[in-house]
Structures are given as structure tokens and as C-alpha cells.
Specification:
Number of strands: 7
Strand order of the largest sheet: 1-2-3-5-4
Shape: globular
Order of helices and strands: HHEEEHHEEEE
Radius of gyration: 19 Å
Number of domains: 1
CATH topology: OB fold (Dihydrolipoamide Acetyltransferase, E2P)
Structural class: alpha+beta
CATH class: Mainly Beta
Oligomer: single chain
Strand content: 25-35%
Length: about 140
């Protein structure tokens, strides 16, 4: 076996060992789909990255204290098809309503966003369980 073949096999072995670390996690392992939380707040930050975008929502409680929720969602490709982009999410500083499944392990202020509603009636629905592009824009 030549040096080139040994190098190729070493590369294959190294990549094979790395696969478990980059494997996609399970929605049901991380989030509790039997529970939902409804949040009202302003989008303060968006991480527009694969494999999932993260929307950060500043939510004020009744005392005025702000808690920033980290809300995981679908991949950017799902959002692009509906016209919902990072710029759209950040440009409108009005209060939105988000429905989310909370973290299964009880991590505070962390969940999976399933619906985003704007005061003008625009609603973006997304579901982690749907295999097809499941982001649908609807209106009241």
C-alpha cells in the first residue's frame, strides 16, 4: 500500500470519527412538543446560520425586567421561500408574539419557535416535524 493510499484511509478514518460530533440532533430529545409557551417581545438579534436559525426575543415581564429568549427554528432555506429574512426580522422593532416549545431539560429562556405573529395579522407558522418546506405565511 502506497503512501497516498495510507493517507486516504487515514483521512476516511478521521472523518468517520468526526461524524458523530456533527450529526443532527433530534427535536424530541431537545424540546418538549407537548408544552407551548407564548411570548411577546421584540426581536433583538438573529443568527442566520445552518442548520437552524436562532431568533433572540427580548421579553419584558410585569415588573419591566427583560429576559432574552433564544429561539431555535428551521433552516434559512425554509424561511427564504416565505419571504422572511434576517433583515425583515430585525428591521421591524415592533412587538411580536411567538409560540414555542420549551427546552425539555428545563433550560430557562430557550425553546423552538413554532409560530411568529405580527400585530398587522401576518403569521409565519413553522413545524420541526414537517419534512417538506413547512413555513407558511398566512393572514388573519
Amino acid at each position: 500500500m502506497g503512501a497516498t493510499n495510507r493517507l486516504r484511509w487515514a483521512a476516511v478514518a478521521a472523518l468517520s470519527c468526526a461524524l458523530p460530533t456533527i450529526a443532527h440532533h433530534s427535536f424530541t430529545a431537545e424540546f418538549d412538543s407537548s408544552k407551548t409557551v407564548t411570548l411577546r417581545g421584540v426581536v433583538s438579534k438573529v443568527d442566520w446560520i445552518n442548520p437552524h436559525i436562532f431568533v433572540y426575543l427580548d421579553v419584558k415581564d410585569e415588573t419591566g425586567k427583560t429576559t432574552t429568549w433564544a429561539l431555535q427554528s428551521l433552516p434559512p432555506l425554509f424561511f427564504r421561500g416565505s419571504g422572511l429574512t434576517k433583515d425583515v426580522l430585525l428591521s421591524n422593532k415592533q412587538e411580536v408574539t411567538v409560540t414555542a416549545n420549551p427546552a425539555k431539560d428545563g433550560t430557562a429562556a430557550y425553546g423552538f419557535m413554532t409560530k411568529l405573529s405580527y400585530p398587522d395579522g401576518h403569521v409565519f407558522s413553522m413545524s420541526a416535524q414537517d419534512a417538506d418546506p413547512s413555513l407558511r405565511k398566512t393572514q388573519k
